[in-house]
Amino acid sequence: MKKIVKILLFPLIGTLLMTSCLGDTEETELTSTVALLTFQIKDLKTVHTIQKDNGEDSTYTAIMSGKSVKFAIDQALQKVYNIDSIAYGTDVTQVLVNVTADGYVSYLKEDGNMGSIEDSIDFTHPVTFRVVSYDKLYTRDYEVSLHRHQV
What we know:
By secondary structure, the protein is mostly beta strands.
């Protein structure tokens, strides 16, 4: 009887010990790929001025949906820009963005410090966005422009 228990018990214990170690050798590998994948702005305010029949100017503010502004991401030149210009009079000094990237994203402020993409960003001039790989070994900068009609 002892012999039968040993024959059945030892292979069972050996199998349990071996299967408990299978997951221990796997390591999570961080990617060194860095890329800006999507770029979108949130809603913007646009001030319109019209002239009434009596010659007086009248202004009103409209909200433009950020989803209607399509952006191109040129990975080779590392540039991001809107395909069609947005309306004249659109306030681009406090723009909120939605960004997805293969890495961590921040932007370069005018004072030289890095800012959070959760902040409102001034797009009066092109803005540099920096993507840092998850392993923090690689970076890639993108110049982001928000084009507006001039008149």
